[in-house]
Design brief:
By secondary structure, this protein is mainly beta. Helices cover 5% and strands 57% of the residues. Strand 21 (320-344) and strand 22 form a beta hairpin. The longest helix is centred in the N-terminal third of the chain and has 12 residues, at 2-13. The two termini are 39 Å apart.
Length: 918
Amino acid sequence: MRNLIIVLLVIFTSSISAQDKGSISGTLLDKEVGDQPLPFANVIIKGTSMGTASDFDGLYTIENVPVGNHTLEISFTGYETVTLPNIQVEKDKVTVVDASLGATAAALDEVVIKVQTNKEREEALILEQKNAVKIEQKIGAQELARKGVSDAEGAVTKIAGITKSEGVKNVFVRGLGDRLNATTLNGLPLPSEDPLYKNISLDFFSSDVIQNVGVSKTFGSSMYGDVAGATIDIASKEHTGKEEFKIDVSTGINTVTYNKENFLTVDGATRLGTNIDNTIPTENFEVYNFDTSFKPRSQDLQTNSSISLSYGNTFRIKDNKLSTYFLASFDNDYSYRDGDIFRITTEKTKFSKDVRNESYIYNVKQILMGNLGYTFGELNNTIEYNGLVIHNNSQIVSEQFGVSGDEQGDNELIFIRRQQQNSNKLYVNQLLSKINLNERFYFDLGASYNIVRGDEPDRRIDSYTFDPDTEIYLFDPNGQANTQRFYGDLKEDEYAGKFSVNYKFGNFEDAERNFGDIKLGYDYRNTDRDFENITFGFVPLAVNQRTDIDPDNIDAILTQGAIRNGEFEFRTNRGRSNAISDFAPYTYNGNKEIHAGYIDVFYNISPSFVANIGLRAEKVDQSIIWDTNISSSDDPSNRGLGTIDENYLLPSLNLKYSVNDKNIVRLAASKTYTLPQFKELAPFKYEGVDFDDIGNPNMIPADNYNMDIKWERYFSSGELLTITGFYKHIKNPINRYEDTVGNLTFDNTGEKAEVYGVELEVRKKLYTFEGTDGENDISFGLNASFLETEQDLKESLSFTNASDGLEGASPFLVNTDITFNTKGKKLNTTSSLVFNYFSDRIFSLGVQGNQNTIESAIPTLDFIFKTEIGEKTTLKFGAKNLLNPTYKLTKETITGEEVTVTSFEKGMNFSLGLSYKF
């Protein structure tokens, strides 16, 4: 370890950094042939060796141009040379210079110059944050690469106050989990791929498809109101500039998994995660037609890999432009968990499980993305199509060995094996348009149709008792409950649309008379979800079910012949009455429809003081129908349960006061709400590894009252200091908790919850010095949050404490990084050390006298190194989780004993990648 750190420090301190750069891009037209594209014209920056030639579509780009004023010279054989002085290049922006050339020199009004923001660059996004009226934060593709972030989930955890909890999908924002957040893609909502969650998994979206990720922790009237933590918006990549074809490849290892012998994999699954067959294999109790094995497969070498291909180009169609961007990617990774699981039951003093757990995990993902953007008309109207297909497949084999409650004899242990495959597919279709009627008046339109398909085919669980004296395995006496096959199927379809009319009033060219703008809008969202599952339980019928067996050859016992001989039988979760209804799956169907209208007014009270006042009206209709062995929505006693019919008026206020050009003070206040999700309402039992989830149709929505105040101090480009104070009051908060029989369920657990705290963000260039070929720098970034949460808890729900904190809320959270950039004639390098830490936090609330389960504090340290060789080649090296801390859950029992609920190490990850532009 010491040698590794020395090597990393040598690499880090020997690296070199880049000076401030921008780029010049544009389109050249031929006046002599009716302003058709002019190819092969020369474009140079006078006084330098920098230059390029226009392509077949008249497009050109000169990259890495030093910041400042330049003179551009455009020439073509037989035509007059055009010389354009005072072309201003700004850091991390694109200065667009379009010109028409002919036999006579171009007039000034034939040259169009404008500056566009590169929304992937850190400095550009900070400038956008500064200019915005509402409080918002964004992290762009450049920062993702610098910090070695591979997906949207990793991106948002680099923002102050946001963290990820192990074993829980998605993130916590200011201590508020999945239910209280919202996810959108290019401003339009997204469905969830998992029946247990409201939001789609953010790790679905790899960094390949991300232009930037925006996080709005405050509410505005143009957002959907079902949010209390943050709205997370993923902006997909678009193409700008000249034609580019790019390939990225990488490979890597995890120190725990790469040389793990007999690494178990799911039988019937494939490396690509394809060929999923989720059809029910039999509808006859006398026919055994299951063709996958209870014994997993194994392999000995596990390497992580990824490859992506992207292509972008811009075409000139008369006076209009068509930009295209396409991407295809594949990546996979392996992980291994080896630790203990210890769980206290609701009987206060007994344990239900004390076992060693080994989990073998394989994830594979494929992505296809296409973006088409068409710009037309003198006012640059746009219409854009985004298509995205993501297939994410997760395969898990887990084995547990130890003591499991008091189900066995005095001297018996338990062995449980589980094989699970989840295959989730997301199809996104978006059409976006902005129509400018004039300089004051424009329409903003969007529509989407999204499809989610989630399959959990043939999840297998087999459980046996083990006698250490005789060293033999026996069928678990629980029979059906612990030897089973599960088939789950999720279908979700979502339609969404938005329309707004925007009008700028006052003299917007005069700061003293620029009054602001007003937006009137309408949003629509319709989500329809169908979920069903069926479980087959296998029951041995031999003497007392105590047949000596081989766990690796259980398939030799569970056969068609064994059914005929009466040695075992199987039944479904509905029983075995030999009726057709025995094979009917458990089902629930949820539908949510939202109509919303809003007004959003931005008013410039003075050049330094801007007010944004909004009001949103939402009509929410949500309903579920279900049919399980627990109950049915057709039962007269259940009529109306799980139905929500609400009308909301949601005000919002955002104030921005610019003390001067460097200092800004902001205030935000709003009201929002939180809906119980489909799965949380349906009395539908979903069986997990250690817990079962059951919904509760008696819940009501929560109301949220939010306030933020923020001070921002901007220094030079890319540097800032911000301090934010926030407060949230939640009425009738919804929580997940463990009920009196050990199931996880949901309820409005109290009358109120409160969240308050402070967030700090610093970005600073520590040191700048001249190298042999340019300006090198060392920069520093830090964000931290200090959080307090409290909620009252209903005594009737058997919580140990009358009041407590929120699950997943870390009182202290910090992200920090230091980056060293260098610039050479042919070699640019970036080296980053990235550190993250969160303090102890509540994983689950204590019940029946036992205290909360606590997730112990975790520090992580990553090292990222990137070198650009010329203009086409980039090499990347990553070393992640270098501290390799132990992930641990602990709990204090009613007797005062602190026990470890679970613990394991993830291992370190090392990767090496190559990127090449053609």
